[in-house]
Amino acid sequence: MTQAPAALEVVNIHKQYGDVEVLKGISLTAQDGDVISIIGSSGSGKSTFLRCLNLLEHPSKGEIELRGESLALSADGKGGLRAVERRQLERMRARIGFVFQSFNLWPHKTILDNITLGQRQVLGRSKDEAIARAETLLKKVGLYEKRHAYPNQLSGGQQQRIAIARTLAMDPEVMLFDEPTSALDPELVNEVLTVMRDLADEGRTMLIVTHEMRFARDVSSQVMFLHQGRVEEYGPPDQVFGNPSSARCREFLSSHL
Ligand code: ADP
Ligand code: MG
């Protein structure tokens, strides 16, 4: 029996800054519907790893495969790997959605424009199509009435929900979240986690860097604990949170729960 290719397959990612290796060979397989939380101390390489997956950072080594299609990479002569084809990279970036800690909305565009721009430029959707999709998603995240507002008229929690809607508008196969609630006032964290929990319940494939341990334990199918650029512990949440084999992981958890 041949197995269907994984939603995302990442093999042996290394990343070097100068002569410091911050990722020392990280591999991961996400099957459809997997929610993989990535936890670890500040500086352990979580953001760098996520950013390598859609080439916001250039890995120095490794392979990235999306549903069996491998991203063609070649050496850039400076120790990094670059996409061979701009077009393939653009398509991959639409298929692997990224949600940033700092939302990264376009400040001078309305919410509706923020959500329609990528759909039109990258997916080639018509204006009407893009607006219809944006409006559906704005209703989903509970912000339809804000469609003509500008980002700075919204709270951080609302901006992050918009950023999630913008990512969803591209119909990504995998979504990456880098500490999506870390920039928010505590009282705004839950509205974002609720949206993410709904996405998990819908069966979306997600990689989530987070310090929200209870959330990670609840929604994850797998949890990855990174330490100094290596996977130090990996497994289902009950194992990683309940009975980790790594002493460093235990230590980390005891200071974060
Ligand atoms: P985390 O997200 O887990 O806090 P990062 O991925 O941001 O960790 O960083 C991992 C390591 O890489 C840290 O030691 C950090 O200082 C280093 N690093 C990150 N970005 C750069 C950069 N642009 N240049 C040099 N070192 C960097
Ligand atoms: Mg980080």
Automatic annotation (TrEMBL):
Membrane topology, from the record: Peripheral membrane protein
**UniProt GO MF annotations:** ABC-type amino acid transporter activity; ATP binding; ATP hydrolysis activity
- The membrane-spanning stretches of this chain are none
Query: Is Lipid biosynthesis found in the keyword set?
Result: no
**Predominant location of this chain?**
membrane
Residues covered by the ABC transporter domain: 8-253
A cellular-component GO term for this protein: plasma membrane
Name the UniProt key words of this record, in alphabetical order: Amino-acid transport, ATP-binding, Cell membrane, Membrane, Nucleotide-binding, Transport
Compartments, as annotated in UniProt: Cell inner membrane
Q: Does the keyword Cell membrane apply?
A: yes
Note one Pfam family from the annotation.
ABC_tran
Q: Which family does it belong to?
A: Belongs to the ABC transporter superfamily.
UniProt name for this protein: Histidine/lysine/arginine/ornithine ABC transporter ATP-binding protein
Q: Which organism is it from?
A: Terasakiispira papahanaumokuakeensis
